[in-house]
Amino acid sequence: MVEAQSWTTRRSSNPRLETSVDIPSTPTGEHRYGPTNNFFNPSFISPTIITALIIASWYFSNIGVLLLNKYLLSFYGYKYPIFLTMLHMLACSFYSLLAIRWFQVVPFQQILSRRQFFKILALSGIFCFSVVCGNTSLRYLPVSFNQAIGATTPFFTAIFSFVITCKKESAEVYLALMPVVFGIVLASNSEPLFHLFGFLMCVGSTAGRALKSVVQGLLLSSESEKLHSMNLLLYMAPMAAMILLPFSLYIEGNVLSVTLEKAKSDSFMILLLVGNATVAYLVNLTNFLVTKHTSALTLQVLGNAKAAVAAVVSVLIFKNPVTVMGISGFAVTIMGVVLYSEARRRLKGTAH
């Protein structure tokens, strides 16, 4: 249970929420569901410029949500990560509905059966587990170390794929995962702010993301039940908010009254919460747009680079101590993730 909260700031904490719904890439709307609205693809702008702006927006939103969450939860003193995540999910519900039904970013898809509904609900539950573990870990670990642990997601994905679906990867893929694990061991042994409980919670969060990815491919495998990533977010976000609400009230106590009281005395807090929730949705929107205008592989490469960029930014801004061994371990982990991605790409190329 999370300890009693106050409005004082802990200098050593580096909290960051993982609000982006971790959804495997899907074929673009043009390929599967017909042409989409050209709101994000105006004809009077060069396609190269549009792609560059989208990639820049992707970095801005991913790094921006990190900085805003850090400021809110550490410097500003708003120490209610579960409730803040719930606000993010409510914002994702509203903006998703606006983007799909009003701007028609992708064609709207309905849930066709009770069976499909409960499958999406199960995915929302796994997602919430990952978020709660991640937010708890970030009360004890610096953002840079959290990013390093989060980069090991492919390792857990390979494990769950084998355990749940009996899917075996090639020897090259498994060998590529060795530096991922070795890098984390190296970084953990030399992390100045290492905290065992925080580390375990962060590993649980990373494993939860990987589990959701595998379970999603298993539960929504039939063509009739597959949903576009933006439609899946539309349904998962309100479910996640409903799941998080009782956890927030139980663990974080009178968070609602404290938030309202703080908002009355400081209107800047309202701007922070609304802006933070909006940027959290933009993470999901730009994930889709990058895949739409480039490829899933490009998004994967950007993700690998983002982990390093986010770690550097967090160190520069939040001044948490780092060691040469810690940096080396992070670099080895990122190298392993790149090798893993390349091995998977070659494997798919051979299969085709």
From TrEMBL:
<keyword id="KW-0813">Transport</keyword>
<dbReference type="InterPro" id="IPR037185">
    <property type="entry name" value="EmrE-like"/>
</dbReference>
<keyword id="KW-0812">Transmembrane</keyword>
<feature type="transmembrane region" description="Helical">
    <location>
        <begin position="193"/>
        <end position="211"/>
    </location>
</feature>
<dbReference type="InterPro" id="IPR004853">
    <property type="entry name" value="Sugar_P_trans_dom"/>
</dbReference>
<feature type="transmembrane region" description="Helical">
    <location>
        <begin position="80"/>
        <end position="100"/>
    </location>
</feature>
<dbReference type="GO" id="GO:0016020">
    <property type="term" value="C:membrane"/>
</dbReference>
<feature type="transmembrane region" description="Helical">
    <location>
        <begin position="324"/>
        <end position="341"/>
    </location>
</feature>
<feature type="compositionally biased region" description="Polar residues">
    <location>
        <begin position="1"/>
        <end position="28"/>
    </location>
</feature>
<dbReference type="Pfam" id="PF03151">
    <property type="entry name" value="TPT"/>
</dbReference>
<keyword id="KW-0472">Membrane</keyword>
<feature type="transmembrane region" description="Helical">
    <location>
        <begin position="39"/>
        <end position="60"/>
    </location>
</feature>
<dbReference type="GO" id="GO:0055085">
    <property type="term" value="P:transmembrane transport"/>
</dbReference>
<feature type="domain" description="Sugar phosphate transporter">
    <location>
        <begin position="52"/>
        <end position="341"/>
    </location>
</feature>
<keyword id="KW-1133">Transmembrane helix</keyword>
<feature type="transmembrane region" description="Helical">
    <location>
        <begin position="144"/>
        <end position="164"/>
    </location>
</feature>
<feature type="transmembrane region" description="Helical">
    <location>
        <begin position="232"/>
        <end position="250"/>
    </location>
</feature>
<dbReference type="GO" id="GO:0005794">
    <property type="term" value="C:Golgi apparatus"/>
</dbReference>
<feature type="region of interest" description="Disordered">
    <location>
        <begin position="1"/>
        <end position="30"/>
    </location>
</feature>
<feature type="transmembrane region" description="Helical">
    <location>
        <begin position="270"/>
        <end position="290"/>
    </location>
</feature>
<protein>
    <submittedName>
        <fullName>Putative nucleotide-sugar transporter family protein</fullName>
    </submittedName>
</protein>
<feature type="transmembrane region" description="Helical">
    <location>
        <begin position="120"/>
        <end position="138"/>
    </location>
</feature>
<dbReference type="InterPro" id="IPR050186">
    <property type="entry name" value="TPT_transporter"/>
</dbReference>
<keyword id="KW-0762">Sugar transport</keyword>
<feature type="transmembrane region" description="Helical">
    <location>
        <begin position="297"/>
        <end position="318"/>
    </location>
</feature>
<dbReference type="GO" id="GO:0015297">
    <property type="term" value="F:antiporter activity"/>
</dbReference>
<feature type="transmembrane region" description="Helical">
    <location>
        <begin position="171"/>
        <end position="187"/>
    </location>
</feature>
